[in-house]
Amino acid sequence: MGEIADPEGFIRSHTRLLAVPHAPSIRLHLADEATALWQKTEDELGEIGLPPPFWAFAWAGGQALARHVLDHPELVAGGHVLDVGSGSGLVAIAAAMAGAALAEANDIDPIAHHAIALNAAANSVAVRVRGEDLVGTDEGWTHVLAGDVCYEQGMAGRIVDWLSALQARGAVVLIGDPRRAYLPLARLESVATYEVPVTRSLEDAEVKRASVWRLRG
After folding, report:
1. What pLDDT does residue 42 have?
2. Which residue, 41, 143, 26, is CA-closest to 84?
3. What is the radius of gyration, based on Cα positions, of the chain?
4. What are the residue boundaries of the structural domains of the chain, listed by start?
5. Mutual orientation of helices 110-122 and 7-14 as an angle, nearest 10°?
6. How far apart are CA 60 and CA 63, in angstroms?
7. Per-residue pLDDT at 16 exceeds 50
8. pLDDT band at residue 136, thresholds of 50, 70 and 90?
9. Can you give the pLDDT at residue 39?
10. Measured in whole angstroms, how far is the alpha carbon of residue 142 from the centre of its chain?
């Protein structure tokens, strides 16, 4: 994969620093439209077939999870929190704002690493960026939060199995998701549900009903 010469400049040029609709105390560098940014990213890198720029949008599950953490800071206060599939860093930023001792944002997209850093700075919080594939590992996180990770079958199964193992050894695990195609509902129970404003170009509605879920057992 190629590299963008100035990734932070690229992010600033193609996004605006905006309040997150369902968590307006957080500001993120957000894009107005997905397809144009996707094309610009491929042009910049000289590649086609890249994954969508997940880092440039506040997805429904992540917004619900961030809102829940901000409304219930006692859930993460003092903890070592991992936000997996972080994208923009939204959930990790919410955890840091809610008093986590250490908030880590994990995403394998190298552009997301720069977006997370920019977004954390914009909200005056410290977030540690993790770029490796952490699925299947255990570094002793007290809390593992995952927003919008169930949109591909193989990935969803792999991540949920890992989350289940982390919960079994004592981690607090929460999933934010608007019932995407591969969300394993039989393994989950809803903790809270929110009506979340979203980008119509990405979703099938302007408002999505997104829930925060925990694994049964």
Report:
1. 46
2. 143
3. 16
4. 58-215
5. 70
6. 5
7. yes
8. very high
9. 59
10. 18
